[in-house]
Amino acid sequence: SDDTFVVMLTEQGIIKKTALTAYQHKRANGTKATLIDEGDRLSAVRLCKDDDLIFIATQKGMALKFPSQKLRPQGRVTRGCRGIKLKPDSQDKVISMEVLHGEGTILTVTQNGFGKKSSVESYRLGSRGNMGVLNVKGSDRIGHVVDSILVDENDEIMLITQFGKIIRLSVDQIRSTGRVTQG
Length: 183
Known about the structure:
Blueprint: E1 5-10, E2 14-19, E3 42-48, E4 53-58, E5 62-67, E6 81-82, E7 94-100, E8 105-110, E9 115-119, E10 133-134, E11 145-151, E12 156-160, E13 166-170
């Protein structure tokens, strides 16, 4: 429908919102969706409406929440604009994006298996293009953030280690904590 948009976000924090209708015509050789800078990669793609909120999380533990209506709709073959500002020389990158429809819970998991749940409300509303707030206090013990996702208390998650070990648990088994903790 006319009020639904495709939001694309790259690892370097470049975000773009395009009307879903811009992608309705099928072409045999595909449809160009966006322009991406050399050395950057697409990190996440979601559908949203103007009354939704965008939540972005980075590998080094930063998070930003802002209204999707602050993103100006652009055409298909455009680059986009800054979604989140990454600290210079930090080698940080965007690892996830969620579209929020109000209240909810964000589950953040780190490289060494630590996790925490925080309410969406604990992340202050910011402006597109700034650095956001601290999501996880990083350390050598917990490692980098590997994902921050929107969850429901009835959800179950599966975590898989690089050696193939699978852990399955219910979201309600994970402790709810404040925003700036290690988990």
